[in-house]
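During the reporting period, our protein records have gained a C-alpha cell line. One record among many is quoted in full directly below:
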Amino acid sequence: MRNRYQGTWVRGFEVAEFTEGGYRIRRLSDGSVLSELFSRDDVRRQRSRQGFWWH
C-alpha cells in the first residue's frame, strides 16, 4: 500500500474487500479495516524479497 504522506510503499496491510469505489484495506497488526477507500494506484502486490542476499 502507498503511504499517502510520503508517497512510499509500506507493508503490513492487505485488501479486505474490493468495491466499485475502490479497495478496503485491513491493517495486519491489529486486524482493523480502514474506513477510507483506496484506489488501484495506492495498492500493489507485496514484492518478494527472494533472490540476492543484499536486497
About this structure: Residues 18 and 55 are 31 Å apart (CA to CA). The beta strands are 13-19, 22-27. Residues 1-45 form one domain.
